[in-house]
Design brief:
It is built from four helices and four strands. By secondary structure, it is of the alpha+beta class. It has two domains: 2-59, no CATH class; 66-168. Strands 2-1-3-4 form a four-stranded antiparallel beta sheet, covered by helices on one side. A hairpin with a 5-residue loop joins strand 1 and strand 2 (14-20). The protein is elongated, with a radius of gyration of 21 Å.
């Protein structure tokens, strides 16, 4: 998959770039980086298997999100895999208190990320023609929002379980 973009810099020089990307999120983060460095996007498109998809430029405001998504995934994996050996009730309570705080932070982070994705999708929808079918970018953001919703529900359940378990001790 390739990302092709055309920018104009502060000296009004037109630049064209093309690079290979493995994930759409990486390409979107690259476009946000370009905008954050003061470049103006004139055109951006994804090219994959002979098909080309023009991306809505307004969706890229310079705010990165790939790193945040990766950090969330890393934190989630850590929470799921981390279950140290417990010796006594005091240590169990301490560990459960830490788990409760982490779960609470995870829920908040997932909610904030989901809200951010909804805002980006909404901007993309405003830029799309009213009579056109949903663009693949909007569909992609909707899919990400759905995935985050599933993660949010799981995180909320884990939080509630940790609270119950802590209160039992």
């Amino acid at each position: 998959m390739f990302l092709q973009l055309t920018t104009i810099d502060d000296k009004h020089q037109l630049r064209e770039f093309r690079c290979q990307i493995d994930q759409l999120e990486m390409g979107f983060d690259l476009l946000s980086d370009v905008v954050s460095q003061g470049e103006t996007l004139l055109n951006a498109r994804i090219i994959d298997e002979g098909h080309s998809l023009e991306l809505p430029l307004a969706a890229f405001d310079g705010a990165p999100f790939l790193l945040a998504i990766q950090e969330l995934e890393k934190e989630w994996q850590t929470i799921l895999s981390e279950f140290p050996p417990l010796i006594d009730t005091g240590e169990q309570k301490q560990w459960l208190n830490q788990l409760v705080r982490r779960c609470e932070a995870k829920v908040i982070t997932l909610q904030l990320t989901q809200d951010r994705l909804k805002m980006i999708r909404q901007r993309a929808q405003k830029r799309a023609p009213a009579d056109a079918a949903p663009s693949p970018v909007i569909t992609h953001y909707s899919s990400l929002i759905d995935q985050y919703n599933v993660q949010l529900v799981k995180a909320q359940l884990l939080y509630e379980l940790a609270l119950k378990r802590r209160n039992i001790l």
